TrEMBL record:
Active site: 392
Family: Belongs to the cation transport ATPase (P-type) (TC 3.A.3) family. Type IV subfamily.
Protein name: Phospholipid-transporting ATPase
Basic residues bias locations: 1189-1209
Gene source species: Heterocephalus glaber
Binding site residues for ATP: 392-394, 496, 537, 560, 594, 674-676, 789, 795, 818-819
GO molecular function, one term: ATP binding
Catalytic activity: ATP + H2O + phospholipidSide 1 = ADP + phosphate + phospholipidSide 2
Length: 1276
């Protein structure tokens, strides 16, 4: 894999049909795709490399190497290697599992079957075996295997219909047509096998809407464009079969070029942890240097005296070298500030949070039996820090279902239910819809609730008839009948489908069309209209018209389009109706409906003939053709007579409006990135309340050149900043990265709400030039940003622009293959398991079935995960600083030695008798005066059995490092002691078990189960999400606070027992200042202090918290008494020599008083500080918790609040496709079928849309927070 020759960069591609040998010399990629990260060979090295990019893993590997050096190691190596291997193995298994599913998905795609023309025969081949230049046969409803040049099809003139939902998110059908010279090949296998045309085209790229190439065949050349190409990821629809020649395969296809690469994602906390680990290592290095210097000084001044008591035949020890060894020894001892168990615990907590997401029944969509799924376990806390959400539109915000809801005809609204007092009432599910069962051609999915419309049709109202006649004639819909005779419509846009279906159910049924005629059924009568002209839609016109001649010989122009465009072209006689209809349009828009104006004009026969002659002349012009045709369209589309307007409901997914409103209150900015046209995207913006009438301005950027885009951005900023020319000039003049610093200033200084709408062409110019910073600055100052007609790669580029320059946590959400690139680019990728396959889900980090679940994912699971992880880290660092720094203070009393014993003692040591202490075996103790400057070793001659003989005391003042571990004590030349061991301030077993047994489960319980407020309160008060965005709960400042807290606790843990034991005696008159009693007192105090501290930190108590916290204390005492018992000493005398010490120490009342004093001194300052802070400066969380407690006592009756209507904002609702319409194609007759195609599905059943509740939510949130404190006002 790594040894393969690098493929040269392509400038152009040359492909010869049916000639694999010729094409192989260019080393074109095959059709196999790879979305996985590893292979069997590369998994281990790449995965280890990725894991050791985490600074902590590299740090522990370094410590492990140090612990393998006996001269400096004071802890056994297994204490580090076992948890390190465990962490690396767990992470590797998780990564391998994730990649296994990627391999499985790749294999599923690569092993799909396709019919390939090989050696003159059609053979079934796997997709991965398809080569460039092969000719492939596709059948109806099949996925396209590669980027193909369309050669021929079952349809007339080589047409075929494709669905491009995987590419641009649009589910409406597109038309592709073959060259006339190749369409003649048909399905003749022998002729196709002899086809040897050569294609010279552009190199592989990611531009979905552009293709440039030339086909050379039979001594002639034919130009190729995007209309001749079928891209991988498309689905063949309503076409029995087609043949295509492979141009781009596998990774060279435009779909894969837009997919992006799989990136290794890490959370901001992980990145911060890398920095903190480096800081901690620097801190430990400073401590080690201090102690090493102290050791060198002590060795130089005092160490010589110690040697007089020892066998020391060598020269005097080098104090500098001793300090060097001491430095590394203390690095090992103090490494527990960041133990490996920290990362084990973090992974366990993240795993628990992932399971909570998977198990959340409130995120389960019963319609598809689809639960939410956390596809990664490493990014949960990042969900609580999202600042920008980038959302696809089709299938993500909407269901892509259009429903005809209301209409205004001749000044009367149809679609509203009125009572006897003519008061409007909302249509509810209880109202009976109009019964269309008596009409066999009616669409069963269509519902309308106003019976008066049907009555007007029956009464023969001419305006109503003309209205629906226009809807049945003015469109680009294609009709067909399935095998049962059912009428099926194939639509270019879902809006057209909704309008034609409404006319169909009202008795005006579009039946068929030819290049010259349109046939409709008017109330049971077939009527054929002569199609004289088709005035197609484009982005500038924003309308479409047809000119027809009815059977009576009258010529009429029927037009529909944006109301702002048509109203300018009305005849003065329609002025009164215009005012009334305009009011109706405003009302429709206020309800979130998409609107269109409907008008017509009667044409004189002579005038039309003259106009049509000019149109034919303009169509044949070589220069300025488009401008001439546009001028003629403008000329005839005037003096129109207004009929009325339509109102279509774009079916949003359930809960979209509420979710967007709630996320906006949480200070999350939502950007819509869609492949749809501008009008459609803007309408969805209004429907979702992302755009409102109350906004100060909506900036539209639609420049076609870099200069135009720069000028439009300048004007928009000028309007935004108003009269502040100095600020504006500063922004315009500075084109460097430093200008991004002005964004934050602008966000504070700009008042009002603004929105930005930019199309794909302008976005491409902005992203590929030096004005992208200006675009980002303007976009960040706007409340809403909508990017329309963008390619998948542009989506990723926008996400990367914000991610890189704003340093903000981003989330991308989508449901199709066209969203994969931005899902991979964002910090968090969310896939919706919608109507467009599973590509987005497979590439995502989290997935669910409905957009509304994003609210709960972020505001509940994300916020809780961030809150829990931050509390976990704060507590973990605190307890480990408190635990570890006791070693530092102890160093000043043990000659700065990291070990307790040194070389073999002299054979005739100083012997001093002392009073019997009734010891079991032998023990060690410090002199109560001057800890560390003298030490005592007691030995009982019967080792392990009680003896009345006084123990032998070996007293020596010196550096304990100078006796090697494993040496023995001698008395008069006879060995009198067990093997000596390396001992630190704590028992080595306590050091090993502290983080993995004594304190692991309580902190895990807090990290997994803790919650500051309930899930419902988290949803009701989105402002609680802001601390995560501002990174307030765990940052460098919080780390230093935890560090200072831990240092204070370590001082109390060491010096309070030290001061208490300094001249103390036990109840039996004996001293209590031996080493093990001192260590047991400190260790017991530490366990109790950290347990009390986590009890204070726990906000939400469960039975698990109680069991883990109090059970950990009980476990500590159980293990402590076991390790100092006679039984364990009998089995492992060398490992557990300090028998009887715990029983002797903890039976002393003074010991328990010291433990109590240490606990109170450690905890009380924290309790006092938190009490004062909560009382004087309560956070919103504190107020909610206080309110919750009050609610439990009072339990007031909850009042229901009335619903509020959305603000009005009129706009066009006509959802046209990306390119110009198919008017020319329709009139040419190329798309007329010779026979019925295979049956296709009809329109889906419309769903009810939810009403807006933004005002309700704002008011509810304000009222709720206001009730938390009777004396304080919370600013929202």
């Amino acid at each position: 894999m790594f040894l393969c020759k690098k493929k040269p960069c392509e400038v152009e591609r040359i492909v010869k049909a049916n000639d694999r040998e010729y094409n192989e010399k260019f080393q074109y990629a095959d059709n196999r795709i790879h979305t996985s990260k590893y292979s069997i060979i590369t998994f281990l090295p790449i995965n280890l490399f990725e894991q050791f990019q985490r600074v902590a893993n590299a740090y522990f590997l370094f410590l492990l190497i140090l612990q393998l050096i006996p001269e400096i190691s004071s802890l056994t190596w297994f204490t580090t290697i076992v948890p390190l291997v465990l962490v690396i193995t767990m992470t590797a298994v998780k990564d391998a599992t994730d990649d296994y599913f990627r391999h499985k998905s790749d294999n599923q795609v690569n092993n799909r079957q396709s019919e390939v023309l090989i050696d003159g025969k059609l053979q079934n081949e796997k997709w991965m075996n398809v080569k460039v230049g092969d000719i492939i046969k596709l059948e109806n409803n099949q996925f396209v295997a590669a980027d193909l040049l369309l050669l021929s099809s079952s349809e007339p003139h080589g047409l075929c219909y494709i669905e491009t939902a995987e590419l641009d998110g649009e589910t409406n059908l597109k038309v592709r047509h073959a060259l006339s010279v190749t369409s003649e090949l048909g399905a003749d296998i022998s002729r196709l096998a002899r086809f040897d045309g050569t294609v010279v085209c552009e190199a592989p790229n990611n531009k979905l809407d552009k293709f440039v190439g030339v086909l050379s065949w039979k001594d002639s050349k034919h130009s190729l464009n995007n209309q001749k190409i079928i891209l991988r990821g498309c689905i063949l629809r309503n076409t029995s079969w087609c043949f295509g020649m492979v141009i781009f395969a596998g990774p060279d296809t435009k779909l894969i070029q837009n997919s992006g690469k799989t990136k290794f994602k890490r959370t901001s906390i992980d990145r911060l942890m890398n920095t903190l680990v480096l800081w901690i290592f620097g801190f430990l290095a400073c401590l080690g240097i201090i102690l090493a210097i102290g050791n060198s000084i002590w060795e130089n001044q005092v160490g010589g005296q110690f040697r007089t008591f020892l066998f020391w035949n060598e020269e005097e020890k080098d104090s500098i070298f001793s300090g060097f060894l001491t430095f590394w020894s203390y690095i090992i001892i103090l490494n527990t500030v960041v133990p490996i168990s920290l990362y084990v615990s973090m992974e366990v907590i993240r795993l628990g949070h992932s399971y909570f997401i998977n198990w959340d029944r409130k995120m389960y969509y019963s319609g598809k039996a689809a639960p939410a799924e956390a596809r990664t376990t490493t990014l949960n806390e990042e969900l609580g820090q999202i600042e920008y959400v980038f959302s696809d539109k089709t299938g993500t915000l909407t269901q892509n279902i259009m429903t005809f809801k209301k209409c205004s005809i001749n000044g009367r609204i149809y679609g509203e239910v009125c009572d006897d007092t003519v008061q409007k009432k909302e249509i509810t599910k209880e109202k009976e819809p109009v019964d269309f069962s008596g009409k066999p051609q009616a669409a069963r999915s269509f519902q309308f609730f106003d019976q008066s419309l049907m009555e007007s049709i029956k009464l023969g109202d001419p305006n109503v008839h003309e209205f629906f006649r226009l809807l049945a004639l003015c469109h680009t819909v294609m009709s067909e009948e399935d095998s049962t005779g059912k009428l099926i419509y194939q639509v270019q846009s879902p809006d057209e489908g909704a309008l034609v279906t409404a006319a169909r159910n009202c008795g005006f049924i579009f039946k068929s069309r030819t290049p010259e005629t349109i046939t409709i059924e008017e109330l049971g009568t077939l009527v054929t209209y002569q199609l004289l002209a088709f005035l197609d839609f484009n982005n500038i016109r924003k309308r479409m018209s047809v000119i027809v001649r009815n059977p009576a010989g009258q010529i009429k122009l029927y037009s529909k389009g944006a109301d702002t465009i048509l109203f300018e072209r009305l005849h003065p006689s329609s002025e009164d109706l215009l005012c009334l209809t305009s009011d109706h349009l405003g009302e429709f828009a206020g309800e979130g409906l998409r609107t269109l104006a409907i008008a017509y004009r009667d044409l004189d026969d002579k005038y039309f003939k003259e106009w049509h002659k000019m149109l034919e002349t303009a169509s044949a012009a070589m220069h300025g053709r488009d401008d001439q045709i546009s001028g003629l369209y403008e000329e005839i589309e005037r003096d129109l007579t207004l009929l009325g307007a339509t109102a279509i409901e774009d079916k949003l997914q359930e809960g979209v409006i509420e979710t967007i409103a709630s996320l906006s209150l949480a200070s999350i900015k939502i950007w819509v990135l869609t492949g749809d046209k501008q009008e459609t995207a803007v309408n969805i913006g209004y429907a979702c309340n992302m755009l409102t009438e109350d906004m100060n301005d909506v900036f539209v950027i639609a420049g076609n050149t870099v200069g135009e885009v720069r000028e439009e951005l300048r004007k928009a900023k000028g309007s935004l900043f108003g009269q502040n020319n100095s600020v504006l000039n500063g922004h315009v003049a500075c084109e460097k990265p430093q200008q991004l610093e002005l964004v934050s200033v602008g966000e504070d200084t700009v008042t009002g709400d603004y929105a930005l709408v930019i199309n794909g062409h302008s976005l491409a110019h902005a992203l590929e030039s030096d004005i992208k910073n200006d675009l980002l600055e303007l976009a960040c100052l706007c409340k809403t940003v909508i990017c329309c007609r963008v390619t998948p790669l542009q989506k990723a580029q926008v996400v990367e622009l914000v991610r890189k320059h704003k340093n903000a946590v981003t989330l991308a959400i989508g449901d199709g293959a066209n969203d994969v690139s931005m899902i991979k680019t964002a910090h968090i990728g969310v896939g919706i398991s919608g109507q467009e396959g599973l590509q987005a889900v497979l590439a995502s980090d989290y997935s669910f079935a409905q957009f509304k679940y994003l609210q709960r994912l972020l505001l509940v699971h994300g916020r809780w995960s961030y809150f829990r992880m931050c509390k976990f880290l704060c507590y973990f660092f605190y307890k480990n600083f408190a635990f570890t720094l006791v070693h530092f203070w102890f160093a000043f009393f043990c000659g700065f030695s990291a070990q307790f014993f040194g070389p073999v003692p002299r054979k005739d040591p100083l012997e001093l008798p002392i009073s019997p202490h009734s010891l079991d075996g032998w023990s060690l103790s410090f002199s109560p005066r001057g800890l560390g400057h003298e030490w005592m070793c007691f030995w009982c001659p019967h080792g392990g059995k009680k003896s009345r003989e006084p123990p032998v005391l070996l007293k020596a003042a010196g550096n304990f490092r100078e006796i090697e571990a494993g040496s023995s004590l001698y008395r008069g030349g006879t060995q009198v002691s067990q093997e000596l061991r390396s001992v630190t301030v704590y028992d080595q077993w306590f050091i090993t078990l502290f983080n993995i047994v004594y304190t692991s489960l309580p902190v895990l319980a807090m990290g997994i189960f803790d919650q500051d407020v309930s899930d419902q309160n988290s949803m009701d008060c989105p402002q609680l999400y802001e601390p995560g965005q501002l990174n307030l709960l765990f940052n460098k400042r919080k780390f230093f606070i935890c560090m200072a807290h831990g240092i204070y606790t370590s001082l109390a843990l060491f010096f309070i027992p030290y001061g208490a034991f300094y001249n103390a005696a036990g109840e039996d008159g004996q001293h209590v200042a031996d080493y093990q009693s001192f260590a047991v007192t400190m260790a017991t105090s530490l366990v109790i202090v950290v347990s009390v501290q986590i009890a204070l930190d726990t906000s939400y108590w469960t039975i698990i918290n109680h069991v883990f916290i109090w059970g950990s204390i009980a476990t500590y005492f159980s293990i402590l008494f076991t390790m100092h018992s006679n039984g364990i000493f009998g089995m492992f005398p060398n490992q557990f020599p300090f028998i009887g010490n715990v029983r002797h120490s903890l039976t002393q009342k003074c010991i328990w008083l010291v433990i109590l004093l240490t606990t109170v001194a450690s905890v009380m300052p924290v309790v006092a500080f938190r009490f004062l802070k909560m009382d004087l400066h309560p956070t919103p969380t504190d107020q909610i918790r206080r309110w919750q407690k009050a609610q439990k006592k009072a339990r007031p009756v909850r009042r229901r609040r009335p619903q509020a209507r959305r603000s009005s904002s009129r706009r066009s609702g006509y959802a046209f496709a990306h390119q110009e319409g198919y008017g020319e194609l329709i009139t040419s007759g190329k798309n007329m079928r010779a026979k019925n195609p295979p049956p296709a599905s009809g329109l889906e059943k419309p769903l009810c849309n939810s009403t807006s509740w933004l005002e309700n939510l704002c008011k509810k949130t304000t009222d709720t927070l206001s009730s938390f404190s009777q004396e304080k006002t919370v600013k929202l």
